[in-house]
Amino acid sequence: MTTFETPLSVLDLLDKTEIRWLFGPEDRMPADYRGPHRLSHRGWLNFTERLERGEEISAILTALSGSRQVLDVGGGTGDLTRAIAAQVDQCTTVEPHRERVETLRTRSATIRALPGHAEALPFPDRSFDAVVATWVLPYVDDVARAVREMIRVCDETDAAARIVLIGGGRDNELVSLLNQVCVPLAGEPHDHQGFLLATAARVLAEAGFSRLAVWRTEAALRFPESALEERVVAAAGVLVDFWYEGHPRAADMKEALRPALYRHFAQRPHAIGDQGLVLVARPAARS
Ligand SMILES: C[S@@+](CC[C@H](N)C(=O)[O-])C[C@H]1O[C@@H](n2cnc3c(N)ncnc32)[C@H](O)[C@@H]1O
């Protein structure tokens, strides 16, 4: 884990070699946000069926130890939300997708699930002692605004105050396949998860949430099929449906992924890594 306990100026913070390295890859750092990815509902469900993320969920629960009133922004289908709800006094989630809000409500009576967007959270200032957003920043319209909203609803006077984010690590294997194969066919700017986390770190530090801790987590999509060809077809389907379901070039993307997936499975036969970076921001220590 890399922890920076001193309130640093924003530029100092991003000048720290270690933290810049984590928010990489540096040579591809874009100047601006590429805009949100579309998330297909079916694609996301197929993706989660293969996702093993026990280590990631443990990391989030550790990051939230001592938290009582937690907001999970963009709870999705609630795998993580349920784990949080089991640990804290009250877990609330805000999710724009109507079907996912219903799923979240029916899956656990202890979760308060509301429709809404990260950029306009439907809560008064300082409503929570912790705010979490896992794998949500790539889908919002305005990253800085979403993070500022998380800061607004987090009670920075609470000793347990913290904002916890997860995005992709610089070595994320899924993002790398996306950028190598699908992004050029879609004619879109490349995905850069480190840019999103660096943007969030900047906004957090500017707002006084300048005690930052960063660490890596390992999650992966599992492909247990014994036949290599079956794995390649399954992986191409899951990845393209997740990122680009309904895209006019989706079939070309599935075809173009095949050689990259053969190469990938030669190295790692039954998994594609979804390496993450957990960022925990707490208010600067008071003197
Ligand atoms: C990849 S899923 C992650 C779900 C969940 N946090 C998890 O880690 O399992 C991204 C989620 O963010 C939600 N989302 C998209 N745009 C959003 C926004 N502007 N504000 C809040 N959530 C958003 C999506 O509906 C989706 O459920």
Summarize the structure.
The protein is of the alpha/beta class and 287 residues long. The chain contains eleven helices and eleven strands. It has an eight-stranded mixed sheet with strand order 1-8-11-7-6-3-4-5, sandwiched between helices.
Strand order of the largest sheet: 1-8-11-7-6-3-4-5
Bound molecules: S-adenosylmethionine
What structural class should be given to the helix and strand makeup? alpha/beta
What is the typical, i.e. mean, pLDDT?
90
Task: Tell me the helix content.
Answer: 40-55%
Strand count:
11
Q: What's the number of domains?
A: 1
CATH architecture classification? 3-Layer(aba) Sandwich
Q: Which CATH C-level class is it?
A: Alpha Beta
Q: What key attributes describe this structure?
A:
Rossmann fold; 3-stranded antiparallel sheet; globular; binds S-adenosylmethionine; alpha/beta; 8-stranded mixed sheet; 287 residues; 11 helices
Can you tell me about this structure?
The protein is α/β, with parallel strands linked by helices. It has a single domain (2-170, 190-222, 273-282), classed as Vaccinia Virus protein VP39 (Rossmann fold, 3-Layer(aba) Sandwich), CATH 3.40.50.150. Helix content is 43%, strand content 18%. The protein has 11 helices and 11 strands. An 8-stranded mixed sheet has the order 1-8-11-7-6-3-4-5, with helices on both faces. A 3-stranded antiparallel sheet has the order 2-9-10. Strand 3 (69-73), helix 5 and strand 4 (90-95) form a beta-alpha-beta unit. Helix 8 (173-186) runs antiparallel to helix 11 (250-267). The radius of gyration is 19 Å and the shape is globular. The protein starts with a strand and ends in a 5-residue tail after the last strand. Bound molecules: S-adenosylmethionine. The site of S-adenosylmethionine (SAM) has 19 residues, from helix 5.
